[in-house]
Each structure stands twice: as structure tokens, then as C-alpha cells.
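REQUEST ID: PR-0412
SUBMITTED BY: lab tech R.K.
PRIORITY: routine
TASK: structure prediction, single protein chain
INPUT:
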Amino acid sequence: MKIQVLFGSQSDERVYGPLCSFLESLAEIKMEVASAHRHPGRVREIMSSSDADVFIAGAGLAAHLPGVVASMTLKPVFGVAVNGAFSGFDAFMSIAQMPKDIPVMAVMESHAQDIKDFLVRAVSWNKNTLKLAWNPLQEASPLFARILNEIQEKSGQKVERVEALSPECQAEIVMRGDKKQGRGLCLFICEKEILQKPQTALEFFEEAQSGGFWVGANNTTNLVLQIKKIKELAP
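STATUS: complete
OUTPUT:
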């Protein structure tokens, strides 16, 4: 496996230095510093010439780099929210809330090294099944039923429920008010009218601080597409 790591600033070395060292036992690592704002040409050059299987992009503040990277590749992209201000809240929301069809797996800097274990598990996923985790107490919720139906329609596969900590778990659906149980790909869901409230963003961020790789709120399109991209990593 080949992994291209890009961070927006040399000052982020405290994050990407240990991360790259940690990933070296898993994959061939290439590391570049290039800002989406200050060096857009260099970012395009890196992306156009890269043969990486996975991309990891990290940035703080207005953290656009992971989204820019995702717009230039069909490969999986992890976006590391660097704690530059507001405890990384601004960076996380910039990375997690990507538009449909351009998924990024947003992760807090304190959990960036979980990428390694996630990839080790993910390369063994069954391509022909969709195994998700959720709180069974939410199954009576109309919102949950709608989200599950959207996932099944968009994936073309029947969803099978598994435990969040199972190695077979491909993603976890986390309803507002619930606590994430696993350590992998996650989708935050809540009612549309609640999603408009700033407090909901803070609740989403609080849950992300406990770990996981998040594809935004209610974004079933990006969840399904992200799972598909990850499954393509399997040999």
C-alpha cells in the first residue's frame, strides 16, 4: 500500500511527524507540505503525479486541504483536523461537512494514528456485503428508518447489523444523543430542523473528539461512496 500525506504547514510537524513514523510499518509513505491556500499549484502537481492508494491531508483553522485533495482523486481521503484554534472545532467542521460525492473521513489530530488500525481492518472487508452498527434502541425512530433505507438504496445492498467493535463493521450510524461505540467510519444523524442549530454542531464535535472517522451529518451519499472507495483497497 502507498500513502500520500499532505499537511498545510510546517508547523504541523508535531502531528504529521509521529503519524508518518507510525504508518511506515504499514505502507510506503510520502510526505509533502503544501497549503490549499498558499500553494494550490503545488497541491495540484502532487495530486496529478501521485500513485498513492490512500491520501491523508491535515490542516487547521479554515481546513480546506483535505476537501481539495478529495476533489482531485477517486481514492480514500482522511482529513486530520489540526488543533489550531477553538480546540480544532473550526478545522473539524471544515473537513467533515463536505458536499455530496466528495467524501472525506474527518478525524481529530489526537486520533490520527487510529488510521493504521482502521486500514488493517478495512482491507479485509467483504465487497459484497454492507455491515453496519447502530444502537438497536433507535430502530423505531422514523429518522433512523429513513437513513437506513437511503443507505440500502444508494448502495444497492441489504444492510446487516453487526457490533460496532466487530472487525467486519464497515461503518457506524450514530444518532444525536447516542455515544459512538466503535473506532471506525461514522455517520452522525439528526432531524433536519435540529441540524440547523449551532448547539448541534457542538454536540457533533464533542462526539468526534472521542475518535472515529466522520463523513458529516446525515450525508448518506458520502457514507456509501466512502465505503465503496475503501473496499477497493482490498487485494
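NOTES: The chain has two domains: 2-121, 123-220.
REVIEWED BY: pending
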